[in-house]
Amino acid sequence: MAKQFLTSLDDEQLRSALTKLGEPRYRLDQILRWVYKDNVSTFAQMSDLPNELRIRLAERVSIRSIKLQSEYCSAEDSTRKLLFYTRDNHAIESVLIPRKDGYALCISSQVGCGMGCPFCATGYMGMSRNLESGEIIDQFLSVRDHTREMNQEVVSVIFMGMGEPMANFPNVRKAICRIISEDGCQFGVRRITISTIGVKGWVSRLSKSLKNVGLAVSLHAPDDELRMRLVPAVRNSPLAGLMQECKDHQYVTKRRTTYEYVMLRHVNDFESQAESLAKLLQGQLCHVNLIPFNRVTEAPFSPSDSVSTARFERILAGNGIPVTVRTPRGRDIDAACGQLAARDLT
Ligand code: SAH
Ligand code: SF4
Q1: DSSP state of 115
Q2: Max CA distance (Å), the chain
């Protein structure tokens, strides 16, 4: 029988597995503590479990469902990219981005992505499969382990790696619940952000079932026509509806929405588009992140020049829209936004 992966099992499944082995109820708490708080990756390390139980569990269950294959460290800015393999040999990537107080962890939710944005390397991979909740949690656990070895901490988790998290929402939700729960990893929910293209209904769904998670919406255009070209999967999801869902999210959570806007030369970086964007976002509790386009071999786009980017930023700021230009990270190791294509660079 194929082994199960512990982090993909919920408490009920774990409890019933332990009952079948004739174990008392408190064993579940012991195991959860070892895996999610103490970060152990083998049953042999669970020193307060009877030896025989450790052996029986190890025969039936694996703790980690992904294996670290390679790690790359950017020579330019200390960003780290971790390449993992799943048990069915798919490559996925997580990225550690240095911050003042630790690392932001950029996590993947799918193998590839089916949304087909023409400026994104993950989009060009196509979609292979959704990640299981355990495979998402395991990125967090493996990376936390790794950063602790460097005497550092993961201070935020952002779903901006490979894939569209809202297209795999049940598993993403399950993983987040484990990462934030008292008997899980006890990570602060407000330190987690989901980035999404915002197909109709997705933002409302997030507001309803994961209220305190941060929201980043990949906008990229101030009008429907251009947006549908840049983000083809939103063709049946007009901007008016998305803006309403975002305003409702702001009202319910009292948190600002981050709008991401990748700056593409002579495509979405004109003055008139900055003015339209300012109008679209007027009165919202929001923040705009202008992302310099990171080159992707297949993508027929060029990055905006610094003058156009500065002008775009000035127009938004002049209209009272909070805005920053994001600093690209890890470009030399293909770890920057949109460059994740799970290619082994060794
Ligand atoms: N699928 C989700 C999250 C993963 S992509 C989403 O699209 O929001 C994370 C961010 O990287 C998105 O804002 C996306 O638009 C941006 N991105 C994709 N390709 C990029 C590229 N080549 N250069 C800069 N940003 C890119
Ligand atoms: Fe998928 Fe996001 Fe890339 Fe679009 S930008 S293809 S939604 S990962």
Answers
A1: S
A2: 70
Q: pTM, whole model, 2 decimals?
A: 0.94
Residue of 194, 337, 339 to test ligand 1 pocket, by largest number of atoms within 8 Å of CB: 337
**CB 109 near ligand 2, within 6 Å:** no
In the chain, CATH 3.20.20.70 covers 66-333
Q: Is 198 left (phi over 0), alpha (psi -120 to 50) or beta?
A: left
CB burial readout 185-223, b (16+ within 10 A) else e:
bebebebbbbbbbbbeebbbebbeebeebbbbbbbbbbe
What's domain 66-333's architecture? Alpha-Beta Barrel (3.20)
Residue nearest to atom 4 of ligand 2 (CA): 117
Let me know if 106 is a catalytic residue.
no
Rounded Cα distance between 334 and 81, Å, is 8
CATH class given for the domain over 4-62: mainly alpha
Whether 93 is catalytic is yes
**337: Cβ below 6 Å to ligand 1?**
yes
Give the model confidence (pLDDT) of 9-65 as tens digits.
999 999 998 999 899 989 999 999 999 999 999 999 999 999 999 999 999 899 999
Residue 211 — very low, low, confident or very high, per pLDDT cuts 50/70/90? confident
- What is the Å distance from ligand 1's center to 164 Cα? 9
